[in-house]
Specification:
alpha+beta, four-stranded antiparallel β-sheet, 4 strands, 33% strand
Length: 104
């Protein structure tokens, strides 16, 4: 399987996302979430790129990457979600699916 790359923009400059916490919010195995580089934009926006790998087929979370990305998108839009409350001071997080990749 492959996966999708997602960029999150958080208005909280001190946000530090952990793969384990995102995976637990998405109810997928921690191996499905890979945190890539993070950077800061002028104005204090924190940019976090991550990869969502295909959850293992045959597991109870045997969803597609697109379904997992959609679930992440919903968390980012819901200001009451743990993701927004814990990492963005209760503000929406800009979420953009950037690219798709296949495991070599």
């Amino acid at each position: 399987g492959g996966g999708v790359g997602v960029r999150l923009k958080l208005s909280n400059p001190s946000a530090s996302l952990r793969a384990e916490s995102i995976a637990s919010m998405l109810r997928v195995d921690a191996k499905c979430v890979e945190i890539l580089a993070s950077s800061k934009e002028p104005g204090g926006t924190s940019i976090q790129d991550l990869k969502l790998w295909q959850p293992a087929v045959g597991t109870q979370e045997g969803r597609t990457c697109d379904e997992v990305a959609a679930a992440l998108y919903q968390l980012c839009e819901d200001r009451r979600s743990r993701l927004c409350v814990d990492h963005n001071k209760g503000r929406e997080i800009f979420c953009h699916v950037l690219w798709r990749f296949w495991r070599r």
